From TrEMBL:
<dbReference type="InterPro" id="IPR011978">
    <property type="entry name" value="YgfB-like"/>
</dbReference>
<dbReference type="Pfam" id="PF03695">
    <property type="entry name" value="UPF0149"/>
</dbReference>
<protein>
    <submittedName>
        <fullName>UPF0149 family protein</fullName>
    </submittedName>
</protein>
<dbReference type="InterPro" id="IPR036255">
    <property type="entry name" value="YgfB-like_sf"/>
</dbReference>
<comment type="similarity">
    <text>Belongs to the UPF0149 family.</text>
</comment>
Length: 217
């Protein structure tokens, strides 16, 4: 799937001025949440990202994320449609290193997104998450050959792709019910409102400060 069809170019353009995490990592976070939650509106995403201590998203990026989440939930709810799900990665015209690092980011994002959903998991799901964490822990220098090359990458990609497919049929909850944000006061301000009033964001809660961290394999 090329970059135009996959949405890679659209995401790259929309998030060009937002560099907190890669677009693959954010797509993974969105997917992890959407295996457990109903798709929120733009304000819901703004509140969640604020609680994760991300910088405010540009309006086009927030709209794109919201629409992509709605499409992802719709796709994953249907067992047949779910098998067509694909992580947001650059196509094979990009260097293998770039694609491996994007997959690593997507895996870490999914772990974070699903992690904040507070869902109970089966032994089989736990094993899948443990293996996904190994993908998120890949260490590779830019000038270093990826062991196994393209064949190994495709194997890891297919495994990662099937994680949300396998998680997709669980009963979903409202985003506002997550413990991460459920304690917010009813009149809590959105990121846009805070930004307009010059209110600074609070520090990242240690329990969710896991984006871009390598865990031992």
């Amino acid at each position: 799937m090329n970059d135009n069809i996959s949405g890679w170019n659209d995401w790259s353009a929309a998030f060009s001025d937002w560099t907190d995490v890669s677009i693959s990592e954010l797509h993974g976070l969105m997917t992890g949440l959407m295996t457990a939650c109903h798709a929120p509106d733009e304000d819901g995403w703004a509140v969640l990202l604020n609680e994760l201590s991300f910088a405010p998203l540009p309006e086009p990026a927030l709209t794109l994320l919201t629409e992509e989440a709605e499409d992802t939930v719709f796709q994953l709810k249907d067992k047949d449609e779910a098998y067509a799900y694909n992580p947001l990665l650059p196509d094979d015209e990009h260097d293998l290193y770039e694609r491996v690092m994007a997959l690593k980011g997507w895996a870490n994002g999914f772990m974070t997104g699903f992690g904040v959903s507070d869902c109970n998991i089966t032994a089989e799901e736990n094993e899948m998450l443990s293996d996904l964490a190994k993908i998120g822990a890949i260490r590779l220098e830019e000038d270093e050959d990826f062991e196994g090359g393209e064949e190994a990458f495709l194997y890891l990609y297919e495994f990662a792709r099937m994680v949300p497919v396998s998680f997709a049929t669980r009963k979903r909850k409202a985003l506002k019910s997550l413990s991460l944000i459920a304690g917010l006061p009813i009149d809590a301000k959105t990121v846009k409102e805070q930004q307009a009033e010059g209110i600074t964001q609070k520090p990242m809660p240690p329990v969710v400060d896991v984006m871009n961290q390598n865990t031992p394999s």
